[in-house]
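Technical note accompanying the year-one report. For the benefit of new consortium partners, we illustrate the data format agreed upon in the data management plan: each record pairs a sequence with a structure-token string. No post-processing was applied to the example shown here.
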Amino acid sequence: MALASLPVFAAGAGERTVLVMGDSLSAAYGLPPEQGWVALLATQLRSERPGWKVANASISGETTAGGASRIAAELRRHSPDVVVIELGANDGLRGLDLVQTRANLERMIVASRESGARVLLVGMRLPPNYGPQYTQAFERNYTELAEAHGTALLPFLLEPIAMDRDAFQADNLHPVAEAQPKLRDHVWPALAPLLD
């Protein structure tokens, strides 16, 4: 699967980078890339925080294992000042081992921190049909990792639209274009303090 085709804008002197490591929710699945929340964030950054750009290394279908295997190369490629990690949904939907999911996320956090970047960990929630034990442990991964590593945390990316069926495409998983600004606006308050 191809990387999201959000352009990385030409770097100027002293330009700083937000690297987004995500899955289909950040890769604008089913939409033109420029309509996704990450592209909208890039536009907002250019307007409100001149000197910042966004590199979107999100891949539809990505798991935490995939992100962990790619993080070192993406850090070398982009030298980011901030890394947004939005992964885990595909692990949860496949019922993968949560200990391994946590280890993969931790590997990404540690690698990002060691490179000198600040980290925003973006969490996800699962449908209740996965059972309370699994779904609660899944959510705890994010909060416990953020606490352990002192990273910023956005507990649930889809919070502003989760209860609105019209905010999702026919698959009931991926947000429509009209919902993407709400996701950007939801991420912004958690991200903005990391840009100072």
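Partners are asked to follow this layout when depositing records. The longest strand covers residues 16-22.
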